[in-house]
Amino acid sequence: MIVRNITIKNKTALTLLNQTLSKDFINGEGSFAKGFEIQDYDYALNLATSNETLAKHLKFKTPILKLKFNKILGDTEAGKYFSEEMKNLLDYDSFYTSGYIPRGFDRWHSDSDVTGYAMLFSYSEKGDGYFKYRDPITNDINTIQDDIGWMVRGMYYGNKPETTLWHCVVSNCFRVTFILTFDTEDKYNKAVELLTRV
């Protein structure tokens, strides 16, 4: 498994996602620049998410600067609601968040420090964004355009060359992501089965 789309059919999960949208994601602040000055936004965005940046890192070990334009959602009303209600539904092990409000990006990174199976629940207001990743087997760079509304993607974060999943995110509209991780493939598969069951 590299990256797979998961279509949610479970009515409880669908209701949970719709209810999450009625909660506050902002908590008084939007996205903010990390690692650069805001007037350098376009330059930082290109440097952080270009294919050339990743290629240089992998070939020459040049550092990938920690450039981001996002915010953490865990302490917002929406973040707390999602994590608590989803915990009642799925047996996940960790919870992470990222918001791109009103627009934002996160640089190339691998999450190899949190190895395991992951589900990314992302909501895009206008579908004007994408998730880009490098296939660790073929080395191909793949770009998945966002849809309008909720999207759920499953993937595995490994820390070996054949399992390291380099990825980045860019959005020109309101976009939020809640990430659930599972320590075992069995727990992940049970969660997928529950979410896709009518």
Explain how this protein is built.
- The two termini are 23 Å apart.
- Helix 1 runs antiparallel to helix 4.
- It contains 5 helices and 11 strands.
- It is globular and about 45 Å long.
- It is an alpha+beta fold and 198 residues long.
- The longest helix has 13 residues, at 77-89.
- Helix content is 27%, strand content 32%.
Summing up helix and strand content along with how strands pair, one would put the structural category as alpha+beta
Tell me which CATH architecture applies here: Sandwich
- β-strand number: 11
Total helical segments: 5
The average pLDDT value, as a whole number, equals 97
Instruction: Give helix and strand order, one letter per element, not per position.
Output: EHEHHEHEEEEEEEEH
Instruction: Provide the gyration radius in Å.
Output: 16 Å
* Uncertain residue segments: none
Subunit organisation of the chains: single chain
User: End-to-end span in angstroms?
Assistant: 23 Å
What portion of residues is helical? Answer: 25-40%
Question: Largest sheet, if any?
Answer: 6 strands, antiparallel
Shape descriptor:
globular
CATH class: Mainly Beta
Tally the structural domains. 1
Query: CATH topology, what is it called?
Result: Jelly Rolls
Strand order of the largest sheet: 2-3-5-10-7-8
